[in-house]
Design goal:
Helix content is about 30%, strand content about 35%. By secondary structure, it is α+β, with helices and mostly antiparallel strands. The strands form three sheets. The protein has a six-stranded antiparallel β-barrel with strand order 4-13-16-15-14-17. A four-stranded antiparallel sheet has the order 5-12-10-7, with no helix packed on it.
Length: about 425
């Protein structure tokens, strides 16, 4: 029989069967099964059946009870992974995007306490410094004045001390009056107070007791003022240069230092998610510079207002970074745990197919050959698994890998 004759015969048969169906001779379901059995000679057979609808009458299935199914060959089954549905713990989390910034509570600007000209710089941007390390030195006229006063007070103290000792001897021989001795004692006490005040004035410039004793002994003033680092950290900015005249509090500061053992993670979260956040909640942060690395931290501050333009709330987290790997300005993704984990049926991402209408479906089997399509409701996602809120129970056997292949086979067979 030629191809044209075969085509004509098949067309006649289909017309006759449609006429019989219209007259009620056979049911719609039987007709479709017959048609699939007769024409579905491809690698996969698509059938709409009521086999997985136990609440319906099997003898008279309605259109709503018909479930798409696909029967696969042994060769096609090698492309799939078929497993019973298990349960997994899904953390209740919220995700957002933000950026890394300095911990402003652990960073500061270093100003000179007194005016003067910079002599030498000892640190540059990026250097790690410890508390007490010298950052720069200045030639300070105020320090010179304080040291000169100290030297003068030391001279007066020595003079009054010698004068008092001489007058004590004269008084013992009745060579002077008692009022002269008392005046000498008063002068010596005043000189001692003056030198103590002078030593304290010099000490305010950072000079040690040994430095002060040397100044007094040598009678030589040292106008070099040493500016040390007030904290341990990293130099983040330097605006100093030799010969630059600096004054206390005048911006920009010669140096800026930050303690980078902790950094801030700044993120703007949606207004609708803001009620779920609390100070102290755990935060997991990832950055593109370190794929696969997770940095731990906690929420430290939640913004008191909502941005009227973006309708978002600022959430600030303090992230531990003991190795100083995170750098301010880095983009970061962070996940915040906002509740206790929930345990639910779970199917891998490859076992769930998104349909054209936005619904999610899986493929269920009882004999590991014929698969029935079922619509499910997906909830949370974590670690490569979808939480199945509705549509499947633990223990049911489904295709956990290759669900999209089955959907394509259904489409191909239907065509």
């Amino acid at each position: 029989m030629t191809f044209e004759k075969k085509k004509a015969a098949i067309g006649t048969a289909i017309f006759a069967l449609n006429l019989v169906v219209a007259m009620g001779a056979i049911s719609t379901g039987h007709f479709r099964e017959w048609l699939s059995a007769g024409l579905g000679s491809g690698p996969a057979k698509a059938v709409e059946t009521a086999a997985l609808a136990p609440d319906k009458d099997k003898d008279a299935p309605s259109a709503q009870s018909l479930i798409p199914s696909v029967e696969l060959s042994d060769t096609q089954l090698t492309r799939l992974k078929i497993e019973p549905v298990g349960e997994r713990s899904f953390p209740v989390e919220r995700a957002a995007v933000g950026s890394i910034d300095f911990n402003e509570e652990m960073s500061l600007q270093v100003f000179t306490p007194y005016q003067g000209r910079i002599i030498t710089l000892f640190a540059k941007v990026g250097d790690e410094v410890k508390k007490g390390d010298t950052l720069f030195t200045i030639d300070s006229p105020d320090l010179l004045t304080a040291e000169s006063s100290l030297i003068s007070a030391a001279g007066v103290s020595e003079l009054t001390s010698r004068n008092l000792a001489r007058l004590r001897q004269l008084y013992e021989t009745r060579a002077i009056a008692q009022k002269d001795l008392e005046q000498a004692i008063s002068d010596q006490q005043a000189a001692e107070g003056a030198i103590r005040a002078a030593r304290d004035s010099v000490r305010l410039f950072g000079k040690t007791e040994a430095d002060i004793d040397r100044i007094v002994t040598e009678r030589k003033a040292d106008p070099v003022l040493v500016i040390p680092s007030p904290i341990t950290g990293r130099i983040t900015a330097r605006n100093a240069a030799p010969g630059l005249f600096v004054q206390p509090g005048n911006a920009p500061a010669p140096y800026s230092i930050a303690d980078l053992t902790t950094v801030w993670m700044l993120a703007n979260v949606a207004e609708s998610d803001s009620p779920a956040f609390r100070v102290g909640q755990d935060v997991r942060v990832t950055v593109m510079a370190f794929p696969g690395r997770v940095f731990e931290g906690k929420i430290s501050t939640i913004g008191a207002t909502v941005d009227p333009n973006t309708r978002r709330v600022l959430v600030r987290s303090e992230i531990k970074d003991p190795n100083h790997e995170l750098r301010p300005g880095m983009f970061a993704n962070f996940v915040i745990s906002v509740g206790d984990p929930v345990t639910s049926p779970a199917i891998p991402f490859d076992g769930v197919v998104r349909e054209g209408d936005g619904t999610m479906s899986i493929w269920v089997t009882t004999d590991r050959h014929r698969f029935f399509k079922r619509t499910v409701k997906v909830g949370l996602q974590h670690d490569g698994y979808n939480q199945i809120v509705e549509g499947v129970k633990p223990g049911e056997v489904v295709a956990t890998e290759g669900a999209l292949f089955i959907s394509n086979a259904l489409t191909t067979a239907a065509r």
